[in-house]
Amino acid sequence: MTESTPTITPSPPVPASRLSQLTESLKLEHQLLRARFEQYKKTVRSNHRSMEKEVSRRFG
User: Is the pTM of this model over 0.85?
Assistant: First the structure.
């Protein structure tokens, strides 16, 4: 049995205008993800503080 190696064909070059569009899209996506993550962290901190207060009221 002989194994055939797959041939790799290079992808065609991306036009500069398309490349700048992709770059801007990635920047926007990163900003949106960061904003969501920061909101998530804020919510977690707030919930943690609420739990700490509740625990200290009940047991402290």
Answer: no
